[in-house]
């Protein structure tokens, strides 16, 4: 036993030393890895501290800039308040200088006199004021500008002036008129942010309104059917007149929201209307644009049924018809108050079929074109004209 034991002890010592050596190497490797991670954490911590310091400096700069902008906005708001106060004083001064709006109460005696005078001249041959002898031959071209607003409405220019402004009546009853400075602004922008707003003293109804020589002629919504003459420059009511026709009914069978259509042509102003007295057909009256007096009245042979719009060209009423299910619009009845154009000699004018039926059609005598509103689309029809004797 002695010699064997002496041999085992060195072997055990060698094995133990080898295990200790491996353990030390393992511990050294773990320590090295731990030091590397600590170094990485230190680098990341330093970088995050730098980024946090930079972000803090950036936020402080932004706060300083915001404070300067807030101070500038406060100064601008104070300046705007001063200007608004000055503007209100100027408006108050202008209101004291402008005359008060005319009384809109009905003068029964004057209205009866106007009716009697008009009836005396009813259906007489009209003495023309101009040498206009043209009539519509056909629709030369059509241009769809855009789709804006409600399915029914009215858009137009000044029928007698040279203004480029576009006036828009959205819907069939409201108290606000949108005014675009030019056709370009109206065409390019879908919203009304580029439009000025005119709030009328009385709400309007229907789509029979007219811009003529710097004035708006519109139909008042409440009470009797009253034509209001509104000055667009100083935003005041110049005159008003209750239309002297008893028991009025919608003038167009397919447009029940319009009771009076104010139209303009080369001869001046006209009123297209209908009454219970002659329920089936459309009536026409010549208006004095200054006083709103009715100068003459006519019973036309043009039926109300299936009529959707009408306009006057050179003293001739043109009534546009459609069907209950919207189809192709057409001028199917022409009545010339001067008697120079027989109904059977008038051209049957068709409008290209588009979307539905027209809620309004405004003839521009200066441009020889029609501004139409078709199911929310704004359309321009350029007309081909001929002499009445050549048709």
Automatic annotation (TrEMBL):
Q: Which Pfam families match?
A: OLF
Keyword annotations: Coiled coil, Developmental protein, Disulfide bond, Glycoprotein, Secreted, Signal
Look up the signal peptide feature and give its range: 1-18
Q: Does the keyword Secreted apply?
A: yes
Principal cellular location given in the protein's record: secreted
> Got any disulfides in this one, which pairs?
132-314
- One GO biological process term: signal transduction
Checking PROSITE patterns in the record gives: OLF
Q: Which residues form a coiled coil?
A: 56-97
**UniProt domain Olfactomedin-like: residue ranges:** 131-387
Cellular compartments annotated: Secreted
What cellular component terms from Gene Ontology apply here? Answer: extracellular space
Give the family, as the similarity comment puts it. Answer: Belongs to the OLFML3 family.
The identity of this protein, by name, is OLFL3 protein
This protein's species is: Psilopogon haemacephalus
Taxonomy, top ranks, is: Eukaryota, Metazoa, Chordata, Craniata, Vertebrata
Q: Which gene encodes it?
A: Olfml3
């Amino acid at each position: 036993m002695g010699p064997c034991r002496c041999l085992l002890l060195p072997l055990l010592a060698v094995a133990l030393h080898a295990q200790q050596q491996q353990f030390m190497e393992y511990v050294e490797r773990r320590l090295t890895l731990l030091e590397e991670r600590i170094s990485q954490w230190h680098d990341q911590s330093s970088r995050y501290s730098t980024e946090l310091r930079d972000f803090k400096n950036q936020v402080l700069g932004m706060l300083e800039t915001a404070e300067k902008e807030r101070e500038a906005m406060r100064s601008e708001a104070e300046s705007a308040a001063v200007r608004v106060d000055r503007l209100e004083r100027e408006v108050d001064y202008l209101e004291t200088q402008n005359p008060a709006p005319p009384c809109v109460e009905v003068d029964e005696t004057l209205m009866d006199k106007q009716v009697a005078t008009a009836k005396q001249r009813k259906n007489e041959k009209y003495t023309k004021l101009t040498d206009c002898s043209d009539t519509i031959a056909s629709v030369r071209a059509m241009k769809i500008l855009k789709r804006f607003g409600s399915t029914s409405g009215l858009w137009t220019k000044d029928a007698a002036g040279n203004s480029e402004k576009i006036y828009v009546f959205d819907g069939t009853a409201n108290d606000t008129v949108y005014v675009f400075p030019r056709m370009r602004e109206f065409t390019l922008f879908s919203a009304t942010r580029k439009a000025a707003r005119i709030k009328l003293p009385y709400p309007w109804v229907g789509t029979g309104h007219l811009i003529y020589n710097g004035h708006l002629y519109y139909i008042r919504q409440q009470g009797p059917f009253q034509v209001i003459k509104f000055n667009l420059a100083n935003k005041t009511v110049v005159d008003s007149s209750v239309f002297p026709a008893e028991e009025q009914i919608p003038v167009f069978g397919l447009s029940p929201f319009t009771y009076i259509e104010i139209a303009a042509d080369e001869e001046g102003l006209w009123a297209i209307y209908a009454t219970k007295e002659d329920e089936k057909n459309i009536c026409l009256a010549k208006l004095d644009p200054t006083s709103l007096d009715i100068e003459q009245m006519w019973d036309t042979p043009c039926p109300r049924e299936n009529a959707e719009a009408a306009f006057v060209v050179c003293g001739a009423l043109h009534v546009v018809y459609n069907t209950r299910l919207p189809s192709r619009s057409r001028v199917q009845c022409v009545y010339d108050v001067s008697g120079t154009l027989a109904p059977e000699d008038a051209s049957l004018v068709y409008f290209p079929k588009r979307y539905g039926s027209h809620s309004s059609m405004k003839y521009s005598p200066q441009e020889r074109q029609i501004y139409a509103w078709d199911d929310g689309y704004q359309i321009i029809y350029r007309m081909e004209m001929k002499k009445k004797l050549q048709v």
